[in-house]
Amino acid sequence: MSDHLTIIEHPLVQHKLTLMRDKSTPSAQFRQLLHEISHFLAYEATRDLTLTTKSIETPMTEMEAPVLKGKKLALVSILRAGNGMLDGVLDCIPSARVGFVGLYRDEETLKPVQYYCKLPEGMEDRVALVVDPMLATGNSSAAAIDLVKQSGCRDIRFMCLLAAPEGVARMHETHPDVPIVTAALDKRLNDKGYIVPGLGDAGDRMFGTK
Ligand code: URA
User: Fold this and answer.
1) pLDDT at 108 (0 to 100)
2) Does a structural domain hold residue 210?
3) Is 191 a catalytic residue?
4) Which domain holds residue 112?
5) Which of 78, 107, 134, 190 maximizes ligand 1 atoms within 8 Å of its Cβ, making it the mutation to test the pocket?
6) Structurally, how many domains does the chain consist of?
7) In a domain? residue 55
8) How many angstroms separate the alpha carbon of residue 37 from the centre of ligand 1?
9) pLDDT at 71
C-alpha cells in the first residue's frame, strides 16, 4: 500500500460508526458493530495483496482462477481494545497468525508502557496488520509498530476505527512507510488525550468497564 491515510466512506461503515459513537449504545451492540466494521477495514487494508492463478474445475469448465500469492499474514492486536477487531479481521483472513502487544497509557505522560509482546514466528516474511480501534496521540501505535519492525517485519499496515489528526501526524513522522486505514478522521484530542467527538474509551465501551 502506498497512500498514508485511507478513510472508508462506505455508507454502511459510516452508519455503523454513528451507532458506535452514540453513548446510549450498549456494550454488546458496540462489540458487534466493531466486529462488522472490521470486515470493511480488512478488505481495504489488503486491497493491494498480490494474486496469482491456479487451475481449477468449476462444475462447468476448467479455468485459471485467482488466488493469493506470496506473503502470509499476521494480525497484531494492541491490547486490550485491539481484540475487538480481531475476529472481524479473522473472518476475512482465517489463516492469519495472531500476535499481541500489551501497552498501557500512563495517564500523566500519555506515553505507552509495554507489559506484553508475543508475535508469530517468521514475521520477516509476513504482511502485518496492526489493529487498535483508536489512533489518538499515536504513541501506543508507534511503539507497537516499533516492536513489529524489531521482529524483522517490513510490510506493515495499521487499521483503526477512529483517528485523530495528532495521531496520524505522529504515525507519519515515526512510521511514514506504514499506511493507515480508518473509518473516520475526527477533529482533535482533548487535554486527556481522548478523541473528540470520538466515542469515549473504546475498551470500556466494549467490555463494560469504567
Ligand atoms: N483511547 C480510547 O479508547 N479513546 C480515545 O478517545 C482515545 C484513546
Assistant:
1) 82
2) no
3) no
4) 5-49+70-205
5) 134
6) 1
7) no
8) 17
9) 79
Asked whether 134 lines ligand 1 (CB < 6 A), one says yes
Cα dihedral 208/147/115/108 (nearest 10): -70
Q: Is the CB of 198 under 6 A from ligand 1?
A: yes
Q: Among this protein's residues, is 125 annotated catalytic?
A: no
200 CA distance to ligand 1 middle (Å): 6
Q: Is residue 188 situated within a structural domain?
A: yes
Q: pLDDT tens digits for the chain (210 residues)?
A: 547 999 999 999 999 999 999 999 999 999 999 999 999 999 999 999 999 999 999 999 999 999 999 779 999 999 999 999 999 999 999 999 999 999 887 878 777 889 999 999 999 999 999 999 999 999 999 999 999 999 999 999 999 999 999 999 999 999 999 999 999 999 999 999 999 999 999 999 999 998
Q: How far is CA 46 from the centre of its chain?
A: 11
Q: What CATH number has the domain bearing residue 27?
A: 3.40.50.2020
Sequence-distant contacts of 150-156: CB under 8 A, at least 24 apart:
151/119, 151/123, 151/124, 152/123, 152/124, 153/74, 153/123, 153/124, 153/126, 153/128, 154/124, 155/71, 155/126, 155/127, 155/128, 156/127, 156/128, 156/130
- Tell me what pLDDT residue 2 has: 46
Residue 158 lies in a domain: yes
